């Protein structure tokens, strides 16, 4: 089978990592409970920033957020490696900016995820992911963003939403912990 995965906040705990980094950079101590309630993909609101300030902060922190030691979710690597070992095709579909694509692919590999170079798609906009997912005829696709998942509603791909505070309203098969993944396929 062909399995597709978003990376940020699907396989790795990127926003939480950025949240801790923002606390450090801003010398603030916003509680982790606040993080768990943020209703948007963007995290700057928890720090009292405007969206302009927030997007500047994100841009200024990107290199550090993306390429240092952001942890992956527990069991995510094991699940993907088991799929690859069983002969399934693993695809990554990330809308990280084009200039970060090659470095992202190498970083994901270095974390221990199974990456075949030709199955790594990067640099598209969120709404363009559907074109890749359709043309690859993915059997299963996992993502966290409602804006992406909702474009896929009428495809034959089985959609799984990685549970997050900002996607509670969407009604797809929901993955909370990666060890549940195999059970969700049944
Ligand atoms: Mg994501």
Automatic annotation (TrEMBL):
Keywords: Hydrolase
Claim: Acetylation is one of the keywords in the record: no
Enzyme Commission numbers on file: 3.1.3.-
Pfam family, one: NT5C
Alphabetized SUPFAM superfamilies for the sequence: HAD-like
Protein family: Belongs to the 5'(3')-deoxyribonucleotidase family.
Name assigned to this protein: Nucleotidase
Biological source species: Solibacillus palustris
